[in-house]
TrEMBL record:
This is Inositol-1-monophosphatase. GO terms for molecular function: inositol monophosphate 1-phosphatase activity; metal ion binding. One of its GO terms (biological process) is inositol metabolic process. Mg(2+) binds at E64, D82, L84, D85, D210. Signal peptide: none annotated. The keyword Secreted does not apply. Pfam families: Inositol_P. It catalyses: a myo-inositol phosphate + H2O = myo-inositol + phosphate. Residues 279-308 have a biased composition (Low complexity). Residues 273-308 are annotated as: Disordered. Belongs to the inositol monophosphatase superfamily. The keyword Metal-binding applies.
Length: 308
């Protein structure tokens, strides 16, 4: 099944690379403000679905553009597909985008492929068998201090997103780290956590096809994934936090109060806080909080065990 997913991802990647040679000729439409879809998204998704259903006609499909239109409706096997994660980057010629394919079996992600066609980087994982980049085993970063860590994120960009809340999150996190990055493709962000290129990642507003494959990469590489409060049942909660164990454990207490699942007291404290001003950003801490170990970072099982 993983080999079929790799074949599908490479077929989609070939289409994307051809279109990238003349990106200005690509037809673009807008799903909503700042949420774009191109003919390349549709062609990539079609190629992936055809490859998967040719091999497994009895499997279900959950894809970003076509939803559950194709495939079996009642299968225990469901392929979760983002045919082009990072569409906005793609249409600008900014080479940070990828194909994301995951296989969920009875609600648990068991196979994952994230393919970066511009670099020909292939990230793969099978549940219980580890994560790989171009057939080389990968592990999350060994860094244990947040002040030494590079953290990736995604900015709010849709109408109705709570931008002020995000600015407060960023002001809380940024001074405590070695740097904050916003590459623009969540599936690739998660793959980079798995490979140890970054120590952590957080973002709100993500859909299941953005995070399904990447979450398995992270956990199979020894990392942790959940929502901002550290709970693993996150796939459909539009809230994702991932990291190597020690850094994940330090991010949960910082980001947990911004979670929609935060306790009433934490939410009240945020509401009473003054509107974010430039002077309100917290100063860089003089001491780093004690590093939490993997066991205390999250009391729950890895994220891909969550049912849809």
């Amino acid at each position: 099944m993983l080999n079929v997913a790799i074949k599908a991802a490479r077929a989609a990647g070939a289409l994307i690379n051809r279109a990238a040679l003349d990106v200005e000729a690509v037809r673009i439409s807008q799903k909503q403000i700042n949420d774009f879809v191109t003919e390349v998204d549709h062609a990539s998704e079609k190629a992936i679905i055809e490859t998967l259903l040719t091999a497994y006609p009895g499997h279900g499909i959950l894809a970003e553009e076509s939803g559950s239109e194709y495939g079996a409706k009642d299968s225990e096997f469901v392929w979760v597909i983002d045919p082009l994660d990072g569409t906005t980057n793609f249409i600008h010629g900014f080479p940070v985008y990828c194909v994301s394919i995951a296989l969920a079996v009875r609600g648990k992600v068991e196979q994952a492929v994230v393919y970066d066609p511009s670099r020909n980087d292939l990230f793969t994982a099978t549940k219980g068998r580890g994560a790989y980049l171009n057939e080389r085993r990968i592990r999350v970063s060994k860094r244990t201090q947040l002040k030494d860590s590079l953290i990736s994120t995604g900015f709010p960009f849709r109408p109705g997103d709570n931008f002020q809340n995000y600015l407060r999150m960023m002001a809380d996190v940024m001074p405590r780290t070695a740097g904050l990055r916003r590459p623009g493709a969540a599936a690739l962000d998660l793959a980079y956590v798995a490979a140890g290129f970054t120590e952590g990642f957080f973002e709100t507003g993500l859909s299941i096809w953005d995070v399904a494959a990447g979450s398995l990469l992270v956990t199979e590489a020894g990392g942790l994934v959940g929502n901002f409060t550290g709970e693993s049942d996150f796939l459909e909660q539009q809230e994702c936090l991932a990291g190597c164990p020690r850094i994940y454990g330090q991010l949960v207490p910082i980001l947990g109060k911004y979670s929609k699942f935060a306790g009433a007291g934490e939410k009240a404290a945020l509401r009473q806080a003054a509107p974010l001003q430039g002077s309100d950003a917290p100063a860089a801490p003089t001491e780093t909080a004690p590093a939490a170990d993997a066991a205390s970072a999250s009391p729950v099982a890895p994220a891909q065990d969550a049912p849809f």
